[in-house]
């Protein structure tokens, strides 16, 4: 019990002190805001296009690769992107804790899929997106999913979070991520973006960098890619 309380105290202190590292010089913050705004315009357009490409169309692959390139370019053009460390463990990267976080998220989403499978307006758009992995190349879709997970976190929990400064960066970065995802036209993806975005934004605040969010996002995405389709198919009425 004492060990659990000590860990909880470390994370609570990290949360309270989380805005201290998020204080860019004024010039760098202006640069971040400008780059973030330009990148969002491009990213929203490419995202809306890529996620509406029908399964089986090979254009889906270069389109999603282009989307990752937009996010990565915006992230690193905005300024320094930090990896972050575990609270009170200087040099220890937040890998294991992020895998555990992704596991919990994946379980929650898989349980939720059992309900979604019975609601056609929610199920069908998600199934159409997952069809890219069954109609096309699963290996290529998996690789692009992982790369986009890295790119999205570098931009949203890196550039956007830092650009928000001390103006509620957890909520701002989550809201922006959800708004971008909404351009896909898939309601369930927006719900996923809010939940995933909130969890990874909290990780960003606690660890001070994007590595934790990246590990969580990629691990969660891989489980969803492989498990969600079979669950929806098995549980459908």
Describe the structure using short key phrases.
237 residues, 0% strand, single chain, 9 helices
Describe the structure.
By secondary structure, the chain is an all-alpha fold. It has one domain. It contains 9 helices and no strands. The longest helix is centred in the middle third of the chain and has 27 residues, at 138-164. The radius of gyration is 18 Å and the shape is globular. The relative contact order is 0.18. The mean pLDDT is 87.
What coarse outline follows from CA principal-axis ratios?
globular
Tell me the radius of gyration.
18 Å
Number of domains: 1
Write down how many β-strands occur, each being a DSSP E stretch of 2 or more residues: 0
The number of helices is 9
Largest sheet: none
Q: Give me the strand/helix succession.
A: HHHHHHHHH
Report how far the terminal alpha carbons are from each other.
45 Å
Strand content: under 5%
What average pLDDT do the residues reach? 87
Instruction: Give helix % range.
Output: over 70%
Structural class: mainly alpha
pLDDT < 50 runs, ≥5 residues: none
Short description:
The chain is an all-alpha fold and 237 residues long. It is built from nine helices and no strands.
What's the arrangement of secondary structure elements?
Layout: H1 2-16, H2 26-50, H3 60-78, H4 96-116, H5 120-135, H6 138-164, H7 169-182, H8 187-207, H9 211-235
Helix pairs in contact: 1-8, 2-3, 2-6, 3-6, 4-9, 5-6, 5-9, 6-7, 6-8, 6-9, 7-8, 8-9
